[in-house]
Amino acid sequence: MELRIGVVGTGAIGEDHIRRLTEVITGATVVALSDINEENARRIAKKYNAVFYKTGNEVIWSPDVDAVLIASWDPTHAGYVLECIKAKKYVLCEKPLATSAEECLEIVNAEIQGKKKLVQVGFMRRYDTGYRELKEMLKSGIIGEPLMVHCCHRNRIPGPQHTTDMTIKNSGIHEIDVLRWLLDEEYESGQVLTVKQNKNAESELKDPQIMLLKTKSGVRIDVEVNMNSHYGYDIQCEIVGEKGVIRLPDPNTILTKLSGRNSYEIYADWSFRFTRAYDIEIQQWIDSIKGSGPVGPSAWDGYVACITADTLIKARKRETIEPIIIQPRPEFYC
Ligand code: NAI
């Protein structure tokens, strides 16, 4: 049976997911889509033989749509996810789940009230081969207990609407989620350092920023989130353990020997670096919702990431170390 998917938001990643659902993924067809950029959405609808709807809610409530993928701007996520829960439809929402922890809790409570897990959040790094291998190695105990984690999240240039808060809530949120998943424990406190300003950054934008996190067991994490690397999209993660060190494969591309030089390509953005992770994420989402329901990052994971990001932003503004206070995990998400 082909699952009929509706897509809300057909910008960069929305269009890429539609291509993926059509050309790579098995068992699903994109039948409906919507975007406030009607001209672009109509072009994509024509290309993929889907029906264009004026509003996201019409896609969500359409009887022709079995499940929904949300890839619109961050502030629109919560409203659409709540609508999907009302319509009792499975939804894969791109990260972040919402722009505040309060909105995430509203989603969590609505899902609990509906008594069915419907929501998955697009934290696709959990599906990346490198991160998966790191997790397996950590579990095997080969480097002993992890003690420290050093990460870099470098973007070539920021998007046009990028803000200082989004560096944490939109970009750094990937590390917030994936490190919590890798280490399998919660955060205790966080801090954000701003550094000498990159003069290539917009004057309003504090860039780069360093997120510092401490987990409950005392693991220390530093993440450079840099929106203006100018050289490419570069993701690094090194875990220092009691007996050794493990690193995400870097470089992630083929070594080329040419014209007297060794060189590696550095990807321009996320779409190249994590292509395979998105493929696996979406295929598993489709397979799981055809079965007993989503098994990927839940609304609860979306909430924990968001409250952590909110706390880090508060810490940056106050120039303090802030405790990360997470509500007790409801039985529903255990
Ligand atoms: P984009 O700006 O290229 O596309 C967003 C689209 O949403 C635009 O076409 C815009 O017109 C549309 N939109 C805005 N408000 C809307 C509304 N109320 N209803 C329907 N459509 C609306 O941005 P991009 O890069 O595609 O990002 C979209 C979302 O995906 C963001 O939330 C972002 O955080 C997430 N994302 C996730 C990535 C990942 O690695 N998991 C990578 C890139 C983006």
UniProtKB/TrEMBL annotation:
<dbReference type="InterPro" id="IPR023794">
    <property type="entry name" value="MI/DCI_dehydrogenase"/>
</dbReference>
<feature type="domain" description="Gfo/Idh/MocA-like oxidoreductase C-terminal">
    <location>
        <begin position="135"/>
        <end position="318"/>
    </location>
</feature>
<dbReference type="InterPro" id="IPR050424">
    <property type="entry name" value="Gfo-Idh-MocA_inositol_DH"/>
</dbReference>
<dbReference type="Pfam" id="PF02894">
    <property type="entry name" value="GFO_IDH_MocA_C"/>
</dbReference>
<dbReference type="GO" id="GO:0050112">
    <property type="term" value="F:inositol 2-dehydrogenase (NAD+) activity"/>
</dbReference>
<dbReference type="InterPro" id="IPR004104">
    <property type="entry name" value="Gfo/Idh/MocA-like_OxRdtase_C"/>
</dbReference>
<dbReference type="GO" id="GO:0019310">
    <property type="term" value="P:inositol catabolic process"/>
</dbReference>
<comment type="function">
    <text>Involved in the oxidation of myo-inositol (MI) and D-chiro-inositol (DCI) to 2-keto-myo-inositol (2KMI or 2-inosose) and 1-keto-D-chiro-inositol (1KDCI), respectively.</text>
</comment>
<dbReference type="GO" id="GO:0000166">
    <property type="term" value="F:nucleotide binding"/>
</dbReference>
<protein>
    <recommendedName>
        <fullName>Inositol 2-dehydrogenase/D-chiro-inositol 3-dehydrogenase</fullName>
        <ecNumber>1.1.1.18</ecNumber>
        <ecNumber>1.1.1.369</ecNumber>
    </recommendedName>
</protein>
<keyword id="KW-0560">Oxidoreductase</keyword>
<dbReference type="Pfam" id="PF01408">
    <property type="entry name" value="GFO_IDH_MocA"/>
</dbReference>
<dbReference type="InterPro" id="IPR036291">
    <property type="entry name" value="NAD(P)-bd_dom_sf"/>
</dbReference>
<comment type="subunit">
    <text>Homotetramer.</text>
</comment>
<comment type="pathway">
    <text>Polyol metabolism; myo-inositol degradation into acetyl-CoA; acetyl-CoA from myo-inositol: step 1/7.</text>
</comment>
<keyword id="KW-0520">NAD</keyword>
<dbReference type="InterPro" id="IPR000683">
    <property type="entry name" value="Gfo/Idh/MocA-like_OxRdtase_N"/>
</dbReference>
<feature type="domain" description="Gfo/Idh/MocA-like oxidoreductase N-terminal">
    <location>
        <begin position="3"/>
        <end position="123"/>
    </location>
</feature>
<comment type="similarity">
    <text>Belongs to the Gfo/Idh/MocA family.</text>
</comment>
